Amino acid sequence: MKQPVRVAVTGAAGQIGYALLFRIAAGEMLGKDQPVILQLLELPMEKAQAALRGVMMELEDCAFPLLAGMVGTDDPEVAFKDADVALLVGARPRGPGMERKDLLLENAKIFTVQGAALNKVASRDVKVLVVGNPANTNAYIAMKSAPDLKPANFTAMLRLDHNRALSQLAVKAGVAVGDIENLVVWGNHSSTMYPDYRFATVGGASLKDRIDDADWNANSFIPTVAKRGAAIIEARGLSSAASAANAAIGHVRDWVLGTNGKWVTMGVPSDGSYGIPEGIIYGVPVTTANGTYTRVQGLPIDEFSRARMDKTLAELEEERAGVAHLL
Ligand SMILES: NC(=O)C1=CN([C@@H]2O[C@H](COP(=O)(O)OP(=O)(O)OC[C@H]3O[C@@H](n4cnc5c(N)ncnc54)[C@H](O)[C@@H]3O)[C@@H](O)[C@H]2O)C=CC1
Ligand SMILES: O=C([O-])CC(=O)C(=O)O
């Protein structure tokens, strides 16, 4: 039997938490042979703590063989103690008519506190995924608040955007979603993101050549993916939860277990490539192996792409300036 992995989840009693924890405990994130200890954080309010107790009772009632232990707490230093993986989900979601960056100041302070707590008590190799919005800038805040941890271990979730783009492409081209490779969503998890299918292939052949529709790309594909979160809020009255949880599981699973050369999109601190200033948390294509990710480098960036990549960068720089006083 393997040693249990400690997985911290914040906002554990929220809607994403409810769609996420049971799948982690079932082994869908770290493997069907990997025991886990769930370390669950919720707000220090009776309603949130009661809801968390209820979720933990349900986890118990599933009798998951891989669930080796559980901690429920309102103290980030308890939740993050020795954590190997930290999923930072807890934050306010947006409602109809809002942009994700409208949450910035309200949610930012959560990530200074949690970054500092991770810095103090988490495993020195903790893999952090920020889901709470605005995810890229919150990941930046957490990274800057944890100076003793490796910046590369702070990531933001663009996997939901990547998955959304895959599904749109599959429908348009009449191909199986699982057969599409080499897709990327550049930049911010916001309406400025740039889903880029120029390199995508199916069975080794170019998907862009197969679709061959610049008008669809600019006026349907890109805006549909970029505005999908808002469309879900409009339809459900609540933001995406099951698909967000699914994306978080995919992000961490691939980071830990590897992609076998397949590209996935992760929001990671820039190394300066593609003209993105170092440190900005930006969606890029990566492959993963042995618990580390490697950027796909050297892709050609045409004028159309440059303009979109610069626009989403400008928004991230604006968000960073907006939280500079907290760091
Ligand atoms: N990156 C992405 O692709 C996506 C991000 N999101 C974001 O994820 C976040 C969570 O969404 P939902 O689960 O739907 O929201 P929710 O409101 O259902 O749950 C959030 C939970 O976090 C808790 N919480 C708030 N502050 C906390 C703190 N400081 N420490 C611990 N727990 C705290 C709340 O009590 C609540 O139970 C939102 O910011 C949402 O916008 C949602 C979908 C996709
Ligand atoms: O749109 C939102 O606010 C929730 C989210 O991040 C998404 O569904 O992509």
TrEMBL record:
<comment type="function">
    <text>Catalyzes the reversible oxidation of malate to oxaloacetate.</text>
</comment>
<dbReference type="InterPro" id="IPR015955">
    <property type="entry name" value="Lactate_DH/Glyco_Ohase_4_C"/>
</dbReference>
<keyword id="KW-0520">NAD</keyword>
<dbReference type="Pfam" id="PF02866">
    <property type="entry name" value="Ldh_1_C"/>
</dbReference>
<keyword id="KW-0816">Tricarboxylic acid cycle</keyword>
<feature type="binding site">
    <location>
        <begin position="131"/>
        <end position="133"/>
    </location>
    <ligand>
        <name>NAD(+)</name>
    </ligand>
</feature>
<feature type="binding site">
    <location>
        <position position="114"/>
    </location>
    <ligand>
        <name>NAD(+)</name>
    </ligand>
</feature>
<feature type="binding site">
    <location>
        <position position="100"/>
    </location>
    <ligand>
        <name>substrate</name>
    </ligand>
</feature>
<feature type="binding site">
    <location>
        <position position="94"/>
    </location>
    <ligand>
        <name>substrate</name>
    </ligand>
</feature>
<protein>
    <recommendedName>
        <fullName>Malate dehydrogenase</fullName>
        <ecNumber>1.1.1.37</ecNumber>
    </recommendedName>
</protein>
<feature type="domain" description="Lactate/malate dehydrogenase N-terminal">
    <location>
        <begin position="5"/>
        <end position="151"/>
    </location>
</feature>
<dbReference type="InterPro" id="IPR022383">
    <property type="entry name" value="Lactate/malate_DH_C"/>
</dbReference>
<comment type="similarity">
    <text>Belongs to the LDH/MDH superfamily. MDH type 2 family.</text>
</comment>
<dbReference type="Pfam" id="PF00056">
    <property type="entry name" value="Ldh_1_N"/>
</dbReference>
<feature type="binding site">
    <location>
        <position position="107"/>
    </location>
    <ligand>
        <name>NAD(+)</name>
    </ligand>
</feature>
<dbReference type="InterPro" id="IPR001557">
    <property type="entry name" value="L-lactate/malate_DH"/>
</dbReference>
<feature type="domain" description="Lactate/malate dehydrogenase C-terminal">
    <location>
        <begin position="159"/>
        <end position="320"/>
    </location>
</feature>
<dbReference type="InterPro" id="IPR010945">
    <property type="entry name" value="Malate_DH_type2"/>
</dbReference>
<keyword id="KW-0560">Oxidoreductase</keyword>
<feature type="binding site">
    <location>
        <position position="164"/>
    </location>
    <ligand>
        <name>substrate</name>
    </ligand>
</feature>
<dbReference type="GO" id="GO:0006108">
    <property type="term" value="P:malate metabolic process"/>
</dbReference>
<feature type="binding site">
    <location>
        <begin position="11"/>
        <end position="17"/>
    </location>
    <ligand>
        <name>NAD(+)</name>
    </ligand>
</feature>
<dbReference type="InterPro" id="IPR036291">
    <property type="entry name" value="NAD(P)-bd_dom_sf"/>
</dbReference>
<feature type="binding site">
    <location>
        <position position="133"/>
    </location>
    <ligand>
        <name>substrate</name>
    </ligand>
</feature>
<dbReference type="GO" id="GO:0030060">
    <property type="term" value="F:L-malate dehydrogenase (NAD+) activity"/>
</dbReference>
<dbReference type="InterPro" id="IPR001236">
    <property type="entry name" value="Lactate/malate_DH_N"/>
</dbReference>
<dbReference type="GO" id="GO:0006099">
    <property type="term" value="P:tricarboxylic acid cycle"/>
</dbReference>
<feature type="active site" description="Proton acceptor">
    <location>
        <position position="189"/>
    </location>
</feature>
